[in-house]
Amino acid sequence: MLNSIKKTYNGFPSLFWVVAFTLFIDSIGSTLLFPFFALYITQKFGVGMTQAGILIGMSSLAGIIGSTIGGALTDRFGRRRLILFGLIFSAVSSLSFGLANDINLLYFLVILVGLLSRIAAPAQDAMMADILPENKRQEGFGITRVVFNFSWIIGTALGGLLAEKSFFALFVTDAILSSLVAFILYVKLPETQPAHHKEEKTNESLRKTFADYRIVLRDAGYISFTMAGILSLLVYQQQYSSLPVFLRDIHGIAPNIYGVMLSITGLEVVLLQFWISRKIRKFNPFLTMTVGVLFFMVGFSMIGIIRAIPLFLTAVIIITIGEMIIFPTNRVIATAFAPEDMRGRYMAIYDLGWTLPATFGPAAAGLILDHYDPRLLWYIGGVFCALSAFWYYLLHLKLGAEPRFQPSNDE
């Protein structure tokens, strides 16, 4: 086993492990906070899930603008500065949320934070694509999933305990950890953008840098891939916004139990992700995405039917199997689409697959939870996942034979 671990470690660039380590630290902070944000809003300000969903959606809508700006700036100015800016601003914004005592102030904060916090997202994805050799990307993205879920085990369990006592402690902890990661990366992280592209972009006008988004938007295959992802991620994100409120209000399940559920699924990823990543890299990525989204369909549909805690745990375990298949694979596909000199802008559009569902999903889900049969939310989610799986299968038929999407058989 030690030889296997050593072989894996030596198989990746040292900078990859620096990034993986800082991801571990930063993700403890984000997983302390993110799953409990809807609970924080509804409890502290005494509002329903509809209003909480609108606030979360406003933040994500502003994030779309921030990510778009960040993608262009990443290709022009490089990755490092954008990433450091994002970490420092994350620390400041966490404290701002924790100190807010007026719901009207929160509306201003979610727009500002949403705009600036997503600027670094394309830079982070582009940096990983820079660091990882092509034949190591599926495995490398799988490793980052394992690292994230080590953090997830710690963060969600601790977050559930802290949320019972003090939401403010969640925000302070996240701010401290973001600042620590910014310091480590300031010391250890070099610029990863290929030097020849950086020189080209320096001589390019900023207007042209933004205008070249039209090249990404004309890539019909990439836009179709992004749209298929939006359908399934619209459902997946309900696990971290609507699900804890649904469990609390409909089934009387406390936040600490929800936190334990998430910790168990984090352990599931730690134990199985690396093995799954090695297995799925042998198959066409679009077909792999189809199978992964079908796991989403089963898991989320179950939530509308079941009542007992063990069955809810079973549902999120099934959903997590889908995660382990989907999330390393969709980043591999996005990277395969992206030309080396446009990775930032391609990754900004990839980021829309997350921000658009986060913009409209929570508010739409809130309307269902507050005004209709709450189980309807999960039945609709099952249908959306079925449509997404079918869409990925069509992409497999259309694009799967292209050389850039051929599976890696390197051992």
The DSSP helix count reads 19
Coarse shape: globular
- CATH top level class name: Mainly Alpha
Taking the alpha carbons of the first and last residues, their distance comes to 17 Å
Task: Round the Cα radius of gyration to an integer and report it.
Answer: 20 Å
Low-confidence stretches: none
CATH-defined superfamily: MFS general substrate transporter like domains
Strand content: under 5%
Domain count: the total is: 1
Give a summary of the structure in a few sentences.
The chain has one domain: Growth Hormone, Chain: A. The protein is 82% helix and 0% strand.
Architecture overview:
The relative contact order is 0.16. Helix content is 82%, strand content 0%. The model has no long low-confidence stretch (mean pLDDT 81). With 411 residues, it is an all-alpha fold.
Task: Give the helix/strand layout.
Elements: H1 2-10, H2 14-33, H3 37-45, H4 49-77, H5 80-99, H6 103-117, H7 121-131, H8 137-165, H9 167-188, H10 195-202, H11 206-211, H12 213-217, H13 220-236, H14 242-251, H15 255-280, H16 285-303, H17 309-337, H18 343-371, H19 376-399
Overview features:
411 residues; mainly alpha; Growth Hormone, Chain: A; 19 helices; 82% helix; 0% strand; globular
